[in-house]
Structures
1.
Amino acid sequence: MNYCSRRSFIKGSGALAAASIGGLDTLSATTLKQPVGLQLYSVRNLLPKNFQGTLDQLAAAGYKEVEAAGYFGKTAADFGNALGKSGLKCVSTHHALTELKSQLSQLIEYGQALGLQYMICSWAGVHRDPSRTGELNLDDWRYVADQFNAIGQKVKSAGMTFGYHNHTIEFGTENGVVFFDELLKRTDPKLVVFEMDCGWVVAGGHNPVEYLSKFPERFPLFHIKDLIKGPDGKWRNVVMGKGSIDYKPILRAATGLKHYFIEQEEFQEDPMTELREDADFMKKLDF
């Protein structure tokens, strides 16, 4: 999750000159039509201190949609009421696979009450052989994919869509097979979608555009973050536009995108100030 390498994305050709170019129109830039969303993990330290106040500040900062990362001990009614008061809509939620395997019925019931459209597995971490520990191997990822299909069927029957959110570990390989590629191959597109964390795809040494070009409809959700490499060789999360990731070609390739959530996992200054900067950047970003 911290191995982001600087990628050079292929930029599209510039706008065509309008004058005397027969049959060609000037290409005009566009901005995202989706509402600005935030993964609430970004404010995980603020919500327990002032739940309603934090949501109100996010709305004032320009956010319209959120993705939950835990429910902070609140009932679905209380969670939903707090969102409603702030004018925010919760579209999606994150749960680890261990939670989904042990509490799926309860989580589905909560999600339905909250009006979720998506339930996303935020972390796999389950071995086919429970006696094994450590990193997942290819056989484990195949087992995980089978679990996703089974969970996806139940979530779909409940009126929501199930998906998986990547980090960097999914871009490991075994015998030349990329784990993430195996997940795409082994999961049923009718039952399992993917939430592309663009930053961690780049951190895993891959180009989001390549996946989006091949499988555009499998990535209806995005996590948007910017990363920069420090002197120690480690990558850290920074305010949008201050890192190394060029989102313009990524967004041009994201033809199946339905919702995106900014996620800033660490801050240099006041979190709410930086989150406002993130929202402003995405609202103004043209591609």
2.
Amino acid sequence: MTKADSSKRGFPGLIVAMTTLLLSAWAPAAAAPYAVGFGVEFASGKYGTGISSESYYMPLTIAFYPTGQLDFTLEVPYIYRSGSAVFRGPQGQMMPVPPTLAGAMAGAGTTGGSGMGGGGMGPGRGGGSMNHATPGGSDNSQSGRGDITAKAGYILFSAGEFRPQIRPNIFVKFPTADEDKGLGTGELDGGFALEISHRRGDWYSFAEVGYTIQGKTPALPLKDYFFYSAGLGYQVTDKFRPLLEIKGFTAPTEGTSELLETRLRLKYQATTHAGMEVYIARGLTTASPDYGTGLAIFYDY
């Protein structure tokens, strides 16, 4: 069995697992809460390719909590990107295109068709080759709807005084982005992760480690990869909590290196139901964005 076949066989299992969790949610529950959020994230860098790329990621997030332990999240993003060095991964993170491909696509316009579209990365399901390009194209920017991601999580163990909360989750990313514009890979992705968090007094700590199964396409040498994050926060007031986080990914494509960045996150709970979060990020490896920033506003019903 090839690695590609193994990855494709993993997706039905992920979907079955999410369906099982969904069916288990329909136990009697009064006024199950839900939340809505909207965010804007910006990232800029050369990602080890020598080509500057910028992106905006604007997700609309809807979360549903049928029970105190089970949750479902649906994320529908809008994307703007310029440059040919990056693509969006299943976690919403900008991922580097191999430098050899990024260089070949730099400054190229497109005459249409599937494959590498808009001077950027947009592998098609069929031919998986570059469009007919005319050298000297000046506009590599594209925008539109991104890939929709569905996620389900379950709290296996609630936090105690000396016991952390443990929450596994699974996710599936559907290829709803326009691959001809380079806004997605055109492939079905999925994965799973384990989250651990604990609060003791005013201190809050968290960590997550997971694995992503990427769909395979001949247009781009995608790889399955691990991702991880860890951080520490302090409750300054009842409403304000700063956190320092480190976030990383192993190489998502052949010919690229790992991604690693640090983030300073500031969370503010304005009211019982409404809050916001801002962050600034700095890349620590060549394949990471040079810097990034983001803002999210959420409301719990």
